[in-house]
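hi!! sorry for the late reply, been swamped w classes. u asked for the two structures so here they r. pasted raw, havent cleaned anything up. first the sequence of the first protein and right below it the tokens
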Amino acid sequence: MKKLFAAFAAIGLLSAGIAHATPSTTLWIPSTDIQAFGVVHFGADSYNCVIKEPTAAGTTGNTIDYGLTVGVVPNDDKFGVEVGIDYRDATGNSKNPWYLNVKAGIKEGAFGDMMPAIAVGGFDFGTKSSTTSTTNFRTDNNILYGLAAKAFGAAGRFSIGYFSGNDKVLVDDTGKADNTGILASWDKTINDKWWAAIDYQGGKSGYGALSFGVAYTVSANSSFIFAYNIYNNDKLHDPTIEFNYDVNF
């Protein structure tokens, strides 16, 4: 889950990671959080299939994702931009494992106490736009999204948004395009060590999922995350248990 757009110009808060190449996220979906200027965020994410021998058609097994994200806007008290790169491998079958992402946003309260945080961005910009086999699949998922989020004191923070991706890649188990949907989340800091969240991405493609998770802060710049992901289309993916380690430099 995570990023480095500045490096890609030449070639053309701690948060959880997700199974696809990710900007800063809640658990599975993007969040309105943006890495501070000059902060490099590293995430190591593991998604472990609950069923050891998946039988559902199209089901993938375990997935790993290593990502870097960096904040690239100085004097970012109101605005922010982060960019990044991920290396993702699904059970050793990913022949084109590199993905890019970018996010820009306005911070909550930047122009008034009632103003929500707003973010727009894109992720899973892969490097392969055609496919010749099941193990050399196309990766140009090209998901664009918009989000708004507002904290309500002890009730926590609520986010709502919408996404749209490549209709040639985001399909259901019958091959029919299912490339748009809602994004929604709740998250709350419990104390100085624990954080909890629930999030949801709509649709019947492999991206649609409901996730529950908690994070434990190890130090001022690192945390562990444990989550459980239930996919909207069980014909494409069995549930996964997610373990993440996130650190800022």
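now the second protein. again sequence first, tokens right under
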Amino acid sequence: MALAPFAALGRYRDLTRELTVRDIVGRYRGATFGMFWSLLGPLLMLVIYTLAFGEILGSRWKQASGADAPFGVVLFLGIMVHGFFAECLGRGPRLMVDNTNYVKRIVFPLHILPWTVMLSAGFHLLANLVVFAVLAKFIAGTFSPLIVLVPVIVVPLALLAVSAGWIVSSLGVYLRDISQAMPVLVTALLFLSSAIVPVDALAEHYRVVFELNPLTFFIDQVREVALWGRWPDWPGLAWRAAASLVVLYASYAWFRASSRGFADVL
């Protein structure tokens, strides 16, 4: 029972893998370039950001620490991390509604569905990271070998994404309006994080709002290792990982309790 929230990676790992692959492949089904879009899409985004903010607007990302980099490259990393969490959160409200056939099956482990969404989003996050790693040297003039630590940094955020999936998907069954409100929340998480603006550049009374956003820490840490070649904040990462585990178990308990009425409502 202690490892029940991680059953998707253990007891049901084969089913989780199958559903994740189906989700990834299904996104590109019918496209001429197929799975190649998982790399082509991020490549085009990075080029557009670099041209728009770097070449045309001449923007630079400046921090109090003295770090300076092309705005488009830094922006790409921020939006990349936000996009990972936003996909899990945005798909949550309709996750159970769109999988009614699974809900009606008594033996189907519904709690693995948010895991499949997170793993699918994680695949695209890694695709973005590969594109960034290949082009960072040419665009930003730098490459950090510490970029391999990005998956480690994202693990606590991935646990939060699964937790959010359990909570939002269960609420989406009983409160259908939540799917209309979710885009607003996703947008707020973007503009009230360090994805768009460096927190160091903000006035003191605004910083607290940005620092309360859980994405801010992870966005900053990904930039530290992937762009500026600095070691992550291990103590900060450790306590956030512990907090993510607490939230994971609490949200799993909520989902298990609320899921008993899914079949009746759907």
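hope this helps!! also noticed smth abt the second:
Residues 10-265 form one domain.
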